[in-house]
Specification:
This protein has one domain: Rossmann fold. The protein contains 5 helices and 7 strands, in the order H-E-H-E-H-E-E-H-E-H-E-E. It has a 7-stranded mixed sheet with strand order 3-2-1-4-5-7-6, with helices on both faces. Helix 4 runs parallel beside helix 5.
């Protein structure tokens, strides 16, 4: 769903616009954005994801700045034209690095860390997109965002018969 949305928006990637993918996983979105002309930073807390992204970038002949980081911890303060966030969204404590891809902490620690620091990386023209899935407590996540001055605008919703609903939100400063 996110890739479909981005495919429609690829013309919005002005040559050399900057994109940060938080939670890059395999780097697919980063690779697509770089091929569309964006200067891309890919970040993940998982060492395996970082290695996968590097391998996939090389195989696809793309230049990505790949950073192992817990959210913005190791990303120098700068503004990005786009920030794409594929967060962990289940309210469980991750016990392993692999579980960090799905579990945001029982008190939504991931989001409590994300939203207060997001303003340091965006301008009034930045676009911030976030995916969430059914089973995520969207109301709690939106409430945490609101406490830091952000609201959600639902851009798309998709129902997959075997996995439930997926949502794409634009995160907007209030």
């Amino acid at each position: 769903m996110l890739l479909q949305y981005l495919a429609q928006e690829l013309g919005s990637f002005a040559r050399n616009s900057s994109l940060l993918e938080l939670g890059c996983g395999t780097g697919l979105i980063s690779i697509v954005a770089e091929k569309a002309g964006a200067v891309v930073t890919s970040s993940d807390i998982s060492h395996a994801a970082i290695e996968n992204t590097r391998v996939n970038a090389e195989r696809n002949q793309t230049r990505l700045h790949v950073i192992h980081s817990d959210l913005f911890d190791k990303i120098p303060t700068q503004t990005f034209s786009w920030i794409i966030i594929n967060p962990p969204y289940y309210a469980r404590t991750p016990r392993t690095e692999a579980e960090s891809a799905w579990n945001c902490g029982t008190n939504f620690e991931y989001f409590r860390k994300l939203f207060p620091t997001l303003n340091d990386y965006i301008s009034k023209d930045s676009r911030v997109l976030m995916t969430l899935a059914e089973g995520a407590d969207v109301d709690s996540i939106a409430s945490i965002a609101l406490q830091s001055g952000f609201k959600f605008d639902k851009l798309a919703e998709r129902h997959r018969w075997h996995e439930g609903r997926d949502y794409l939100f634009r995160v907007i400063p209030r």
